[in-house]
Amino acid sequence: MALIKLSAITSSSTVSRRRLPLVGAFCVLSSGLSNLCPSLSLSSKTGCAQSLPLAPLFSYLHFTSINLISRSKFSSQTAAQSVDRIRMEANNKTVPSIVVYVTVPNKEAGKKLAESIVKEKLAACVNRVPGIESVYQWQGGIQTDSEELLIIKTRESLLEALTEHVKANHEYEVPEVIAMPITGGSLPYLEWIKNSTRD
């Protein structure tokens, strides 16, 4: 077991300035350990333990400091996200909102369905995206069709009513209705979604 003195560590060119505080922490730790274990030999000049295996403890201290830094960064990011979420939830001008995807066979069907959804206040806005091509499995075969995609912004509470409306006004036997939560965004836009839809 190698014996290492503090003076050797501090004068070594291989130890960077960033690690010097860890050496100091090690010395404090060593002094504390010596009080618990009198059998440890101490140098009267430096106050550091000379007979302790430094490599494992030094590695442990280095790992612990990195781990604490990582945790503090993660905690600050999580706290900031929580503050934003709390701010949004506490804002009574917004409601939980969703984006819903619905595909339709053509432009005419898309226009008709989009207008009926907005007219019934089942959504604040419907974007129509023409010219998509869908490849899917149906009745045991691979089908390819040109379609139009509707991107619908509405309240989460209206999903069931919107789904029933799509099923009643769609020519497909199994129309696509897929909802995804809106977890953040422009507060004025989210307020507009609430104000443009029915309760």
Automatic annotation (TrEMBL):
Species this chain originates from: Ilex paraguariensis (yerba mate)
Family the UniProt entry places it in: Belongs to the CutA family.
The name this protein goes by in its record: Protein CutA, chloroplastic
Pfam family, one: CutA1
Subcellular location: Plastid, Chloroplast
InterPro entries documented for this protein: Ion_tolerance_CutA (IPR004323), N-reg_PII-like_a/b (IPR011322), N-reg_PII/ATP_PRibTrfase_C (IPR015867)
Keyword Magnesium attributed: no
Coiled coil: none
Keyword Transit peptide in record: yes
Gene Ontology cellular component list: chloroplast
Keyword terms, alphabetized: Chloroplast, Plastid, Transit peptide
Superkingdom as given in the UniProt entry: Eukaryota
